[in-house]
Write a sequence for this structure.
């Protein structure tokens, strides 16, 4: 099978296409013939790595797992002897989590992973693009305990996490203001934003409005600039917080009693099923910017690392 590997840390040029034996599933695993993967912000951060501390858990000198890629969508083509949830021929999609291995033609994965049946309303590319941003968005929205008719401002609204947050917050009954480049206004409006604002307007002196939830998706604005727009008793969400942000946020929470949510999310099957149901009913749209063939992984990483994708980037593996 074709596999794309990163056998050392570094620039997008580290990727190589290799030929591997097709793996056999263990007794609780299914094997998936992988039609589509995705390149997410987490992928290039691990490849680089960024931050450098990633080496502590992902391999000091080189990546412990040379096959990156978290999201997948494909067809079950073999099952282990104890598997009960899936059968050969099922279409499935989901997240391998920190097991990774998504940049490959075949993946073996435990049947109890964050993975579900791909409904006929969702294509393979959409299935591969759905998990990353939406599972992050829903986890932080749940932590923010956002209520119907509350206001939320989403900074970096055209990102993978942002495009999912707009739609899920609307579904929860919130009033959504999306902050993004003017070129992305029509995109964010098309998926439900009630109001739009560009980055300069967000930071301008005249922007004095406050919101029940300030949802910073991309780690590009300072904590004080976000706190300025937080209603008393509101919740600040820092999806892309750096270590420095986390220390600052923890201190502010402690000393001023402000609710700030940050840190790694937990991907759950329950949340994947919830979002899948919305997508099936046409109430959640997966935003796909571009797709690249598996062999063009370096170009895909360059594009995603540049930081201006709209929604998600998909990898075509088997057509
Ligand atoms: N806590 C967790 O567990 C968790 C989970 C997932 C992701 N994350 C983090 O969440 C962040 C977002 O991830 P993602 O995959 O959604 O990102 P992404 O899709 O790669 O973000 C791309 C978006 O960022 C915007 N952007 C770039 N530079 C900007 C700037 N200076 N100011 C404002 N917006 C800017 C771009 O808009 P323009 O083109 O208009 O500039 C673009 O739409 C990342 O930092 C990621 O590491 C954290």
């Amino acid at each position: 099978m074709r596999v794309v590997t990163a056998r050392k840390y570094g620039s997008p040029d580290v990727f190589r296409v290799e030929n591997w034996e097709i793996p056999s599933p263990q007794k609780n695993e299914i094997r998936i013939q992988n039609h589509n993967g995705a390149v997410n912000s987490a992928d290039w951060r691990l490849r680089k790595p960024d931050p450098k501390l990633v080496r502590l858990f992902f391999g000091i000198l080189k990546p412990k797992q040379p096959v990156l890629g978290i999201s997948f969508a494909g067809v079950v083509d073999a099952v282990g002897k104890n598997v009960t949830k899936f059968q050969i021929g099922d279409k499935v999609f989901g997240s391998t989590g920190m097991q990774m291995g998504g940049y490959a033609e075949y993946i073996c994965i435990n049947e109890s992973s964050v993975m579900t049946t791909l409904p006929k309303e969702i294509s393979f590319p959409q299935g591969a693009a759905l998990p990353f941003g939406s599972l992050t968005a829903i986890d932080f929205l749940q932590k923010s305990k956002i209520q119907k008719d509350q206001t939320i401002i989403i900074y970096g609204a055209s990102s993978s996490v942002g495009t999912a947050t707009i739609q899920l917050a609307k579904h929860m009954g919130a009033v959504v203001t999306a902050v993004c480049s003017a070129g992305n206004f029509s995109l964010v409006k098309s998926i439900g934003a009630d109001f739009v604002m560009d980055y300069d307007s967000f930071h301008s002196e005249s922007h004095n409005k406050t919101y029940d939830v300030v949802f910073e998706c991309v780690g590009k604005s300072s904590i004080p600039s976000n706190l300025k727009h937080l209603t008393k008793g509101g919740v600040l969400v820092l999806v892309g917080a750096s270590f420095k942000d986390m220390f600052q946020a923890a201190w502010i929470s402690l000393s001023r009693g402000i609710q700030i949510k940050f840190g790694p999310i937990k991907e759950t099957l329950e949340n994947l099923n919830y979002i899948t149901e919305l997508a099936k009913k046409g109430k959640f749209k997966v935003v796909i910017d571009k797709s690249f063939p598996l062999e063009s992984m370096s170009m895909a990483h360059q594009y995603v690392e540049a930081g201006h994708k709209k929604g998600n980037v998909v990898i075509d593996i088997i057509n």
Observations:
- The chain has a mean pLDDT of 97.
- The chain has eleven helices and 15 strands.
